[in-house]
Amino acid sequence: MAKLAINGGPKTIDRQLGKAWPISGDIERENLIEVLESGRWWRGGEPPETSKVYQFENAFAKFQGAKHGVAMTNGTATLECALKAIGIKPGDEVIVPAATFVASATACILVNAIPIVVDIDPANYQISPTAIEAAVGPRTAGIVPVHYGGYPADMDAVNAIADKHGLFVIEDAAHSHGSIWNDQGCGTIGDIGSFSLQMGKSLTAGEGGICLTNDDALAEKLYAFHHIGRFPGRPFYEHHMVASNLRMTEWQGAVLLGGMSRLEEQAETRDANAKHLEAGLREIEGVSPIERDDWVTRWNFYFYHFKFHSEQFGGITRGQFVSSLAAEGLGCGSGHLAPIQKNPLFTERQWGPVCFGDNEPPDYAATATPECQRIFEDEGISLTHRLFLGGTEDMDLMLEAIQKVRDNVDEIPEAD
Q1: pTM here?
Q2: Active-site pick, 55, 64, 126, 198
Q3: Above pLDDT 90, what percent of the chain?
Q4: Does 247 participate in catalysis according to the annotation?
Q5: What per-residue confidence (pLDDT) applies to 57?
């Protein structure tokens, strides 16, 4: 009789793990009704002391440990705005990792800069400091490290390289709300931090984004670039810069204030559950956790990665492993491990009428990031953050499913 569910055996997990996402409740409902009845649905029409967006900006900046927060329409807009505020020029090169959402690089192109894609560290799946250093050239202006999956990047190394070469650092913290690096909130360590508040993120309003900074001058520029060139405290129809309208609505601010009321508890729950899972993964042959570096104070993740080792797992492929786990009731993915430069927009150079000055982007089709490619194809396994919002019994069920597949590896169907 078959033991594995993929062959008709009983499923290990036959109930929902964690919690459904997104989570909302009375706070969101009351805030939204307040906005509705106020008749002032945009931050420009609301005084700062009663604006939900203003309240959210201050609450999130304080939560992460930043002096200033500027909320915007989405996480791509925050990256673009950050690059404009930092003073990016046409043809400037910006170093980004291969493992990330494509917006980390396309935001550069949208402001006429050239993304230079580099490999990741196989130990923690974050941007490789060695690869950053090797990519620095005469046109390099900055680095956009991504706290990939919410795991803090090696900001000591990143900032050391930036200081050595006079580069800016914009943290893409889209995955790392509540993650803490050496007791500092992610997104507060470089010049500017950029967060996404899109539907799947661990803090969400469906869409949205926010930039954080500790620099007063950068904060003023971020505000101007998101608010049609206005400066705080100046007359409303006085515009100082050519800039877009990237303002967040009061509706989004209302929802985000509700999410903020739960964020600390959720971050602690995810981190504690992940540590429980990691202890169990170490006991199963053929899988292993990402071992936490000393700088990881807290890991609050968008998705959680662990490692699959085919040669220790009976020689089956990553695909066979994922299919077998899915049949047991544990759905897995690969996160954003597919190297971004392999997208057609890069390989076919489909970036439209942008101005790179006298410079030209590299041949992305020939840009090799072998560690990222290997990890994507053979090793990296991702789990969504909502799975970690339950109790440790959910972690034990996940481990039971993985152990069951390992114990019955000879039963797994051959790969197509």
Answers
A1: 0.97
A2: 198
A3: 94
A4: yes
A5: 97
